[in-house]
Structure formats: C-alpha cells, structure tokens
Amino acid sequence: MSETDNRLHRLFERYIANTCTREELEELLAAVKQWPANDALRLAMEQHWRNSRDTAGIPDAEAKLEHLLTSTRPSTDQQEQENLTPVIPVRRAYRWRYAAAAVVAVGLGAMGYFYLQRSPTPSAIVQHNILKQDVPPGGNKAMLTLADGSTVALDSASGHVMQQGNTSIHLQNGRLQYDVNGASDAASLNTLTTPRGGQYQLVLPDGSKVWLNAASRLKYPTAFIGKERVVELEGQGYFEIAKKAGQPFKVRVHNLEVLALGTSFDIMAYDDERTMNATLLDGAVKVSVNKETTLLKPGQQAAVIRGADAIAVNKVNTEQVIAWKNGYFSFVDADIHTIMRQLSRWYDVEVSYADGMPQGLFSGEIGKGLTLAQALETLEQARVHFKIEHDRHIVILPE
Predict the structure, then answer these.
(1) Which of 287, 308, 289, 311 is nearest to 297 (CA)?
(2) Which CATH number is 185's domain given?
(3) In what residue span(s) does the FecR protein domain sit (predicted)?
(4) DSSP SS3 for 284
(5) Structural contact between residues 87 and 116, judged by C-beta atoms closer than 8 angstroms
(6) What does pTM read for this prediction?
(7) Which domain range does residue 190 map to?
(8) pLDDT for 268-318, tens place per residue?
(9) 232 neighbors 219 (Cβ within 8 angstroms)
C-alpha cells in the first residue's frame, strides 16, 4: 500500500473516531470529492464496513459512504469547523439513530451546521412564511444604572463616560471599564443590564473581566473594599477573576454562591432554565447552595435544580459551555426547547410550539453573526419546520 493510501486510511479512521483536526477533515473531504474514483478511500471504507454491523443491508457503495459520513458526528470545536464547505449529500441513514442533515452556512463571518439524532420518520414538506423583514443578530448593547438610579445607554462607542469618586468609567468598543485612581474608602453600587439581543463586556475595578450574555444583569460596587469582593448575577456571565490575596471573589445568584480565587468560570442561571450551572475552566472554585458545598476542578460543572439543595457535578465540554462568549451557539444532544430559548434571547423573538413539535435530540452549531433567517435556515437542514406569524413570533411546527 502506498504512502498516500496509508494516509487516507489513517484519516478515515480518525474521522470515525471523531479525532480529526480541521486540516485533516478538509483533506478527507477533498478525497471524498473524488469518490468513487479514489481507490484508497474506498478500500479504507470497505474495511470499516466489514467490521461494522451498522451498515449491514445498505444496498450500494455510495449509500454506504453517505451513511458513514452523515451518521458520524464531526467535531464541534469552533476553530476546526469554521469555513468548511459541505461536499457530501445527505440521505436517510439505515440505522435507528442517524444524522438527518448537516450543513455549513457561512454569513457575516459566522457559520452553522446542524444534524438530528432520532428514529427515522417520513420526510414532511411544510410551507412556511418568509420573513418580511429579516431580524439582524444581537450586538453590543447594555444599560448602565448608577447608584442614584440614573441610566446610561451603552453601545459599541468608545470614550469617557463619567467619574464616580476616585473611579473613572470608560467605554472601549463594547466594553465598560472601571479604573480606580488611588485608595477608596467608599463605594456605590452600579448595575449593568443587557437586553434580549444584547451582550457586553465589563472590566471591574479590581481588573476582573466579565462577559454578560443576552438578558442578563450584574450588580457590583464601584470599588472593592472590605474582606471580600462580591457581585450579584442574573442570567449568564463568564468571569476571569483577577487574583487579589486576602480578598476572595464571590458571585451570588439566587441561593447559589460561587467563591473563586484567580480563576475562570461560567455561570448560567436564567429564570426560564430548569437548572443553575457553574462551570470551571481554570483554577478552582467552591460552589455552595444553602448548606451544600462542593469544590470544582477544571472541566467540571455544578448543576443545581431550582428549589433544590443538591449539587450535581459532571464533566463537560467547556468550549461548548462558553461558545456564546466566543461568537456561536453550540448544542450537543439538545432538545428543541433548549435551542430556541437561546435563539430567542439573542434575536429578541418570541417562540411558541404547535402540537406534535419536533422530537429527538439535536447537535450542531450556529454562528451568532447570522441573521435570524440564516439561523432558521440552518435549523431547517435538520428538518425543523416553522412559520412566522409576525416578524418576531416564530411558531415551531410538527414534522
């Protein structure tokens, strides 16, 4: 076997094992374009077919190829998926769990692909209304509420906002930054609120960085004095905490408290979500709810069901958890409700469901730079049908 043949064998094996890098996946897709003329790739797949019972009964080589490549989950890492072009047509697979569709939609510097895992059902053709006026993606916008109750609308502008005591407040391209000049013996509370369809970054007086997701709120002091640094969160935020010996950092969310010393973590606690989740990326945090306490290691997530005291700790894909911060939505085995809750916050739309809504679990990514129409088109590739009752009310239809 030639070196080229060996290379294609290894690429195909890495694809099946879901360990391809972006460059390897592109190389394999280029080889697939030459199907069925590429003998080395055909030999590699024939060897896999002989070792797999999943492809038994599939009638021809082309169907086997499409089955293998559409029923194997690609990597969901943003860097590996960005700018890939689909070259593989999608057909119905012949096993009970299958990838119904996969598509890469490039627009506004973003991407998206989706596939569905569920029992095969007859394909439905549904007519839906076209958006009369497309809805743009969310962007950098927030409202700053000062201690006296006055408010300042924030966007992506830059410049000096105001002075509060020894603290200067600046805007820098969608980021609000607090700079403390000298010691402070007093502090007032400020609140940063992002609307539906908004996001914003914040640099706290101690240098800690916070990214606020859509429909979120953070209350914090203009200077951290005393024995601890405390902020209050609603919604979702990603934190990179500046180390400060002798002054631990706490985030309070309802009855949940996260205690950190220089570390990076995400907290998701929307009122319409069943659980509150704290996910650790780096360092160490202590998560407490009422009398229950647990320590997290990097890559772990603490989940607390609302109204309960128990803390469940699970290993998670942290890149998926903070995908919202990095410019895209990422879902793995998510139901349609989970997906649409996130989209509704980002595009500021209402979502309702007709009887017999899509069942099963969906996996894929949608770029946050896509318009609403582009995002919905991506979902349609996984046979999610919808209608638009008016420009900001989406009805999810049965199959």
Answers:
(1) 287
(2) 2.60.120.1440
(3) 191-286
(4) coil
(5) no
(6) 0.70
(7) 139-321
(8) 999 999 999 999 999 999 999 988 999 999 999 999 998 788 899 999 999
(9) yes
Number of domains composing the chain: 1
What is the token pair recorded at 314?
């699970």
The model's pLDDT over 144-170, given as tens digits with 9 standing for 90+, comes to 999 889 998 998 667 777 887 778 888
Query: Two tokens at 56?
Result: 């038994």
Q: Which of 153, 93, 138, 154 is nearest to 118 (CA)?
A: 93
Indicate the helix (H) or strand (E) that contains 115. Answer: strand 112-117
Neighbours of 65 (CB within 10 A): 21
User: Tokens representing 311?
Assistant: 């803390």
pLDDT digits (tens, 9 = 90+) for 7-39: 777 777 776 666 667 677 767 766 765 655 556
Nearest to 102 by CA among 399, 383, 395: 383
What is the distance of C-alpha 261 from the center of its chain? Answer: 25
For residue 298, cis peptide bond before it (omega within 30 degrees of 0) = no
Residue 20 within a domain: no
Q: Are 258 and 251 in contact (CB under 8 A)?
A: yes
